[in-house]
Design brief:
Layout: H1 10-30, E1 37-38, H2 40-49, H3 56-66, E2 74-75, H4 76-98
Helix pairs in contact: 1-4, 2-3
Amino acid sequence: MWGKDGNLPTSSILFFTTDYIYYCRMFRIIDDNGSRTLDREELMKGLYDFGLKFTKAEVTQIISDIDRDRSGSVSFNEFLQALRVSTHCIDVIINIANQDNGSYKQV
């Protein structure tokens, strides 16, 4: 991800900016009541709308895991932090795969 000179390549900055815009739109779509937070019902419906089916108990657990301020809902910052951790995990997996004689190519 980082260039040999220690700087983030322009293509990576564009990737992160594009992801940020995508996540902003996703959050606004899921936030049905415009409260700038996601409650259990909004998150459950939003995940379903994006093709992911979870039970109420599973969505409650997801909120519990990412609700850092324990407000009972997910703020935009908490939403981004949860996605950033996931993205970091994906980057680690890609880096490991890339070390496998170059047999994996990132698309």
